[in-house]
Design a protein that fits this description.
Elements: H1 11-25, E1 29-33, E2 39-42, H2 44-50, H3 54-57, H4 71-84, E3 89-96, E4 102-115, E5 118-127, H5 133-136, E6 142-146, E7 152-155, H6 157-167, H7 177-180, H8 183-198, E8 203-210, E9 216-226, E10 234-241, H9 243-265, E11 269-274, E12 279-282, H10 285-290, H11 294-297, H12 313-323, E13 329-336, E14 342-353, E15 359-368, H13 370-392, E16 396-400, E17 406-409, H14 413-417, H15 421-426, H16 435-453, E18 461-468, E19 474-485, E20 491-500, H17 502-523, H18 533-550, E21 554-561, H19 564-571, H20 573-589, E22 596-601, E23 604-610, H21 614-630, E24 641-647, H22 654-670, E25 676-678, E26 687-689
Parallel strand pairs: 24-25
Antiparallel strand pairs: 1-2, 1-5, 3-4, 4-5, 6-7, 6-10, 8-9, 9-10, 11-12, 11-15, 13-14, 14-15, 16-17, 16-20, 18-19, 19-20, 21-23, 21-24, 22-23, 25-26
């Protein structure tokens, strides 16, 4: 309840209200604390010291404003002061500013009465922050300030970024080096810091720090002591990252050493000319190359040692190019040796610029190319002889580039195809070859490029290719092409010749046709146009060998036209021939692909069923037997046939196998004809039945040759 106007005034309440009024109106930083250290009242000046607002501070305890590692000690000091109610005392504390840096503050603390029988504290705060901190935040040099205990009181933005990169720590304020770096580095820094506190002058040291991802950074650091008035001494560290500079210096030293070793030991002669053309330096390799000592050249005009003394037009043109700042010039000149002999040298020269970008002269190197010039001369003479031969030869000589373009065709192409060399070279490949020859040509060229790319030795090309002629006809040529590779295995060109073989090709085609006809006559029955016995015997022998080697099943079916002699006697031999032809047609049209069918002799026919056992061969024979009997033959009516089937037994001899199928056919004849008989296994009786009726009738082996 509120106090009425009649109640006497409470001194404690009045005191508290007086403190509130005094704090709010004061220009210095003031705050009032509760008995638990909670900030009850704080003015704007106090909040400005920390870069915060009043409302935020009124929710904190006083020791919440100091660095975390000091909070326990400051809380104990404030609590003891509340308990003892001593007079005013001044302490220095490190606080964290809202902008992220550490500031030093001086707190003057006194106890007071803030309510009825309730005591608290009044705190006066003065910031000791250096005003130059804000300026240092914007310099690229790393700047940090530590107290006597090694704690970071301030780091500028540049140092904060660097330390975050090195350690992964987002903030190091209030931390020591040992909190963020491994012992070897932190211990070294501690010793250097102690040395700086003992010294009256600034100290410089080169420091190496590890990086999180590996490697290290190198810094040049100056340490000096700030002994400002009314403050404890602080250590100011100013560091500059010299990693790139050190690496560049080391690289430059290595490059200079490499250049010196290269210049002194290279087979090339390295030299330096000034703008007037005088030799300023030349490598010792000059003595090995031409017999001159370097000092005999230095100070002399470089052209004094060239056979033409630099007066020829080619030399003058290249010299003008260098004056204009050409990146590099390559020249070949004859140069004098110390013994008076003349040699060929190839020179590579380029302008030499100083650090200001001004051209000071020319740097170059040359090597002897006597052997190269001799080889080129021989090659040029050889090419001239080659071109003379190519242009007068009957064969067409041509070259193809790695991209497939024809780069040369000899004039004989006109006699071969009717095109001039220029016309033929411009033709796309689709207009040069018909489809099959084009496919062979392109397949080889693709394989050639693949072999060269893989580092394999490519094969030469040798084939017969067909060409289109200008009049629309085609010709055949024998083509030989040789890949030409350079020393590094790269394809330089394809060198080829094309010889006309059209007449030979026509003769070969005629010969092939004749051979084909002879083969047909030798393997085909003249009447029925199916295979003859000789051809089938060769196929049976081959199947017999495969059966022995791989264990493949194979069967024979032997068939004979029933009463064929009666057909000839009654209808005449011409009608009998028609029966043989029709019989062959019906059997052949109902066999599987791969089955072989031949006239075995007279009215007997043999079928070879490869990869077929008796279980499959027997139904095939039954089917054929029905096909023959079911449809009458023209002019003669119904004709039947008898069949014998035999699967080859493991290890059985060829003669035994053929004898068994012959005996099976005889059994069908004995059983009444128009029947199929399965030959018995060796030592077993055969099985015979008419087609469609798989009975178990048996017949004895024939005592004599069977009849129709």
């Amino acid at each position: 309840m509120g106090r009425s106007a009649a109640d006497p005034p409470n001194p404690s309440v009045a005191m508290g209200e007086a403190w509130t009024l005094a704090i709010g109106s004061s220009g210095m930083g003031l705050a009032m604390l509760s008995s638990q250290g909670l900030i009850l009242q704080v003015n704007q000046s106090f909040a400005d010291c920390l870069g915060r607002d009043v409302e935020t501070l009124q929710h904190l305890r006083l020791w919440d404003l100091v660095l975390p590692m000091d909070r326990e000690q400051r809380a104990r000091e404030v609590t003891e002061r509340l308990a003892r109610r001593k007079g005013a005392a001044t302490i220095r504390v490190l606080c964290l500013h809202a902008e992220g840096h550490v500031i030093e503050m001086r707190w003057t603390i006194a106890d007071c009465l803030i309510g009825e029988a309730e005591h608290g504290l009044i705190v006066q705060a003065v910031a000791c922050e250096a005003k130059h901190h804000r300026v240092l935040d914007f310099v690229h040099t790393h700047v940090g300030i530590k107290d006597r205990q090694g704690r970071y009181l301030y780091v500028n933005r540049s140092l904060q970024v660097a330390l975050q990169t090195l350690t992964g720590q987002h903030s190091i304020l209030g931390l020591r080096d040992r909190d963020i770096l491994p012992p070897p580095w932190s211990e070294t820094i501690r010793r250097l810091d102690e040395e700086a506190f003992r010294s009256d002058t600034s100290l410089f040291h080169e420091e190496h720090f590890p990086c999180i991802g590996g490697g290290e950074r190198i810094y040049l650091t100056e340490r000096l002591i700030d002994r400002s008035e009314a403050q404890e001494p602080c250590l100011v560290c100013i560091s500059c990252d010299v990693t790139a500079l050190k690496e560049a210096s080391a690289h430059l030293a290595r490059s200079e050493e490499h250049f010196r070793l290269l210049a002194e030991n290279s087979g090339d002669v390295v030299f330096l000319l000034d703008l007037e053309g005088y030799v300023r330096w030349v490598s010792p390799s000059l003595t090995r190359a031409l017999g001159w000592r370097p000092e005999e050249w230095i100070g002399q005009k470089g052209t004094d040692f060239i056979l033409t003394h630099g007066l020829d037009s080619g030399y003058q043109l290249k010299l003008r190019d260098l004056h204009k700042g050409a990146e590099a010039v390559i020249a070949r000149d004859q140069i004098l040796a110390s013994d008076g002999t003349i040699h060929w040298a190839e020179t590579h020269a380029s302008p030499f610029f100083n650090s200001s970008g001004c051209m000071e002269g020319y740097v170059g190197h040359f090597h002897m190319v006597d052997a190269v010039v001799a080889t080129e001369t021989q090659l040029r003479q050889s090419e001239e002889r080659y071109r003379l031969l190519a242009e007068n030869a009957r064969d067409v000589i041509w070259t193809m580039e790695p991209n497939g373009d024809i780069s040369y065709i000899s004039p004989s192409i006109y006699e071969l195809r009717g095109f001039t060399p220029e016309e033929a070279a411009a033709q796309p490949r689709e207009q040069i070859h018909p489809r099959d020859s084009l496919a062979r040509s392109e397949a080889y060229f693709a394989q050639l490029l693949a072999d060269v790319a893989a580092g394999r030795q490519p094969e030469p090309f040798r084939s017969e290719l067909e060409y289109y002629c200008k009049d629309g006809s085609t010709i055949w040529t024998d083509v030989i092409a040789l890949p030409v590779l350079d020393a590094d295995g790269r394809l330089v060109k394809l060198l080829g010749t094309s010889r006309d073989i059209t007449e030979r090709k026509r003769y070969e085609q005629k010969l092939s046709l004749v051979n084909q006809q002879l083969h047909t006559l030798a393997t085909t029955d003249e009447l029925t146009h199916i295979s003859n016995r000789r051809h089938l015997e060769s196929l049976i022998n081959a199947a017999f060998s495969r059966s022995d080697r791989y264990g493949e099943p194979v069967s024979l079916v032997l068939c004979d036209i029933d009463f064929f002699k009666a057909v000839n006697d009654h209808y005449g031999h011409q009608a009998g021939d028609h029966v043989l032809i029709e019989f062959s047609r019906r059997i052949a049209s109902n066999l599987r692909a791969g089955d072989e069918f031949a006239r075995w002799g007279g009215e007997e026919f043999m079928i070879l069923l490869s990869h077929t056992g008796a279980g499959t061969a027997y139904p095939v024979a039954e089917k054929l037997c029905r096909i023959i009997a079911e449809t009458p033959f023209p002019d003669v009516g119904t004709v039947t046939a008898s069949f014998g089937v035999a699967e080859r037994q493991p290890g059985e001899l060829l003669d035994s196998w053929i004898q068994r199928v012959d005996e099976a056919l005889y059994a069908s004849k004995e059983a009444g004809r128009n029947a199929v008989t399965m030959a018995a296994d060796v030592g077993m009786p055969s099985l015979s039945c008419p087609p469609g009726d798989r009975g178990n009738g048996t017949a004895a082996p024939p005592a004599a040759r069977r009849g129709g």
